[in-house]
Amino acid sequence: MIEGLRVAVVVPSFRVARELPDVVRAMPAGIDRVIVVDDCSPDDIAAALEPIADPRVRLVRHEVNQGVGGATVTGMLAAIEEGADVVVKCDGDGQMDPTDIPRLIEPIASGAAEHVKGSRYHHARELAAMPRGRLIGNIGLTFLTKLCSGYWNVLDPVNGFFATRADTLARLPLDQLARRYFFETDLLIRLNIIEARVADMPQPARYAGEPSSLSIRRALFEFPWQLLRGLVRRVFWRYLFYDVSPVAIFGIVGGLLSLFGVCFGTWQWVLHAVQRVPTPLGTIMLAALPLIFGSQLLFQAVILDIANTPRASVRTSALIPRPRAVGGSPVAAAGSNPDSARGSAAPPAH
Q1: 198 contacts: CB under 8 Å, gap ≥ 6
Q2: In the chain, N or C terminus with fewer CB closer than 10 Å?
Q3: What is the pLDDT along the chain (350 residues), one digit of tens a residue?
Q4: Helix (H) or strand (E) holding 88
């Protein structure tokens, strides 16, 4: 156990037979179960695990590849069935350090958060080692994910290294989560709907020059539609179904006004350009005013959504590891409160 909690680590595995043994061996002693999900990998995951004599390791195999999301959901369901209190996702490719798991669990154990994500962007030195194309893509996806998930305070929302309370996962429709690369974002969207508090844990990523498996085509043509659908789902369930909020009213009215202004203005501009006559001032205003008012309503909806972000009762700065003095004891930052990292206990999200 870690912090008195039974911890299960889910390791989705696909084409990671070379790196997986080192990842499993690095699991801290306090972890109760390591569930490796072989997602119909073409390499031999079972053979890679044979030399590891660790009774905590359980291998689950998919007969059909289901993607990283499908493999993670399978592991989550197995962990909940075994009575885990906290479920951790750690990829099998070695990019995540299993020794960071106790720090990942600490805000959950203290009652400060229900979901804790690793955050790579707090470590500038290690961030410089990230492949340039991946870094640029992650920055763009980060903003769009903040918008659709509603977790504006999370610096690295697309990070796949996270820990979640098992009872929080039990409140989610796990069988409906995205099965592939949209999984982490879809999980955040569902967590926001039930107002689960999410915290960032600074954690450097480790890259060894391996190519990203996320294609540019998928990022450009599939993600925008999925993000828009996720945003609509979150606004409907959280701000209309469970509780009518100005966020939904401003967003819907503002979106309709803006759409009318853009479509009507474009149509009139093309129509008068073809006729080679100037567009009347009244027609221009008829397109401009809805666009201006609609934009203002949309901005107001975003501001209110930011204010309604479910926030963990712990600062990210409190989760940064402190330098160690002689003797191995952590050095507290000047003026810091040693109890500030834990925060106050809070009831489960509803």
Answers
A1: 113, 114, 115, 116, 117, 151, 153, 154, 188, 191, 310, 312
A2: C
A3: 888 899 999 999 999 999 999 999 999 999 999 999 999 999 999 999 999 888 999 999 999 999 999 999 999 999 999 999 999 999 988 888 899 999 999 999 999 999 999 887 766 665 566 666 666 766 777 888 899 999 998 888 888 899 999 999 999 999 999 988 889 999 999 999 999 999 988 876 665 544 555 555 565 667 788 899 999 999 999 999 988 899 999 999 999 999 999 999 999 999 999 998 998 999 999 999 999 999 999 999 999 999 999 988 876 656 666 554 444 444 444 334 444 433 333 434 44
A4: strand 86-89
> Distance between CA 331 and CA 341 in Å, rounded?
14
| Alpha carbon distance 303, 240 (integer Å) | 17
Tokens of 194: 């039930």
Give the DSSP per-residue string, 32-77.
-EEEEEE-S-SS-HHHHHTT---TTEEEEE-SS--HHHHHHHHHHH
* Residue 141 CB coordination number (10 Å): 18
Other beta carbons less than 10 A from residue 195's beta carbon:
16
Q: Which amino acid is at 153?
A: N
Helix extents (H) in the chain: 20-25, 45-49, 67-81, 101-109, 124-127, 132-149, 166-169, 183-193, 216-221, 223-236, 246-275, 281-307
* Torsion angle of the four alpha carbons 216, 182, 154, 320, in this order, in degrees rounded to the nearest 10: -80
SS3 of 134-172: the string is: HHHHHHHHHHHHHHHHCCCCCCCCCCCCEEEEHHHHCCC
Q: pTM value?
A: 0.81
The answer to whether the CB of 330 falls within 8 A of the CB of 324 is yes
Question: Tokens in use for 147?
Answer: 């918008």
Q: Measured between alpha carbons, how far is 71 from 95 in angstroms, rounded to an integer?
A: 18
How far is 37 from 23, CA to CA, in rounded Å? 14
Neighbours of 222 (CB within 10 A): 14
**CA dist list (Å): 69 to 13, 24, 174, 344:** 11, 20, 10, 32
